[in-house]
Amino acid sequence: MNIGEAARASGVSAKMIRYYEATGLLAAAPRSAGNYRTYSQADVHTLRFIRRARDLGFDMTSIARLLALWRNEHRSSAEVKRIADSHIASLRDRIGQMQAMLRTLEHLSNHCHGDARPDCPILDDLASPEPAR
To answer: How far is the CA of 133 from the CAs of 94, 110, 120, 121, in angstroms?
Structure first.
């Protein structure tokens, strides 16, 4: 299949397919006589794997490691679990940071009158050298 068909079948854009090839996540596709990339069902399966990993927020390095483990029939699931657990910890940290941002913004918004006056604690906080905690 050509790149457009592979994109439709995998849910990954043609641009991202080319990017995954350039970064080595996906093997370079063989070319047709007309110099068009051709993809197999195995390529589409790999693209779906990558898309699902991206949907779960894994970074490209982790996806490359997961792909290598997926392809290795003698893999240890302990390594896969370690990668997933590390990602879980990272997600929890990011969620905590986002919750702190939300609390700060809610606090600032609750203290802003939102009227015709020029004073605004939101702008004051953004302009201050030390952010409110």
So the answer is: 17, 15, 17, 13
